[in-house]
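In this supplementary section we document a worked example of the pipeline. Step one takes a protein sequence of length 263 as its only input; no multiple sequence alignment statistics are reported here. Step two produces a three-dimensional model, which step three serialises into structure tokens for compact storage. The input and output of this example are shown verbatim.
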Amino acid sequence: MPFTERAYRGRYSGHFSQGVKWLLMANFGVYIVQFLLAWSSLGEIFTPFYLRPIDVAGHFWVWQLVTYMFFHDVHSFFHILFNMLTLWMFGKDLEEAWGTTQFLKYYFLCGIGAGVFVVAGNLLFGNPYSSTIGASGAIFGLMLAFAMQWPDREILFSFLFPVKAKYFVMILGGIQVLSSWASMGGPVSYIAHLGGMGVGYFYLRSRRGRRRPTLVGRTKTSFWGTMMGQYNEWKLQRARRKFQVYLRKQGDAPPKDRDRWVQ
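The serialised model returned by step three reads:
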């Protein structure tokens, strides 16, 4: 399981950002209730909240595009464990950079977008009566956003191997895609994962999405402000080079001609 160097210093201190904490509590709370009722006939009461393409398209049960993200497979604890650990590791930095409102908006946008891809894919090529649950679509969107913002930040893959975030997301995405095909026997999870990442990517690249997360502690600047900052940095570098040339000339001058006040 991955974690970032920043996660080791900050997240293991017990601090949770607000939005991440809400999502963790909601997902684990639903999972506990779902687990307790799964062994009785009451477990069927959750079925209308799973994502079924035929329900969304045929009965217009559009709430399933949101509710399916809070349900996980009670027969596999790894399902919710992986999703929530990933949310915890990558979500905190994004929320600190974006703010809680923007972070939650992006999270649900990726999750709903993944659901739309699942519905469309199953209606066109798959089984419209199949049910999909899990926050994987939103989680993959978060990983993509993290890699786009901090591509060179190192992540310890399996707590052992340092990998840059951009490569880590590519590797993990490929592993999850292959695992989805192998375990489910169809493209449903593949579409969800790819859909969440695709929606997140186009949102971050769009005009509206250019308010991308900035490094914590930095302020957001306009395009003109960025250009002026780059111009000022260029002038500073030029002045520094001229000063270095001047010092070299002073160092090469004969001792009798050298100004004794220049060091």
